[in-house]
Structure of DUF3108 domain-containing protein:
Amino acid sequence: MKKSHWITLAFIFTIFLISFRQYDQNRVITNKSFGTGEKVEYRVHYGFINAAEAKVEIGRSISTINSRPCFKVNVSGRTVGAFDLISRVRDTWRSYIDTSAIIPLMFEREIQENKYRKDEKVMFNHTKDQAISTVKNETKTYNVPNNIHDIISGYFYLRTMNFERIQEGEVIEIPTFFDGDVYKLRFKYAGRDVIKTKYGKTRVLRLNPLIPDNKFFKGDEPMRLWVSDDTNKIPLKAKVELVIGSLEMDLKSYKGLKKEIVWF
């Protein structure tokens, strides 16, 4: 994988964690965690230097893909300040998630990283366990494992999960389709904690993505994520340990949540 892709994934992984179940168009996942109109913004910084901004938005209205109602989720990221001069990033990721089954039906990405450009659309056929990717005018069909996700949709399913049923230290392995490949992503639930943000203190769940050895990251568990310990389960803080230092992500603003976060 290209270095630029690893750096992009580092940002995405700090924001999005993934889970899965058997696909069934008739199933209904109880969802009290998110809905249309939600918007969350983050600031990514390297020490005291602002490095990037990220935004996660759910469309104000329901979209339709293959006659199924879907949440349209947009994720955008951009470098700022000095980082924008060194490595300019303007990325947009989009997932259309079945409102009942909480599984992706379509995924899109528009990548601008310095001179690198890539636009891709992926259609998911869960009945046949296929991902159909179109880049420019070339379409390829990939066989994928059952319960495949894109890197956005699984996080939204995760938000519906009951962490009372998950043991501290438990590792979840997730098959995910990205850039023409299937990755077995592994995540560890590291228990509960309390953190301080610009809005005050609040209770959180600690989640650590586990990644293969890589020369860009430092330590055995270089990525850490703190998610609100409530029905929302939105990321409030993240940290990525790099060989050359660490990147941190903090909550900048939010609105449209299903339930107000309890600060103290």
Helices lie at 3-15, 81-86, 153-158. The first helix runs from residue 3 to 15. The mean pLDDT is 88.
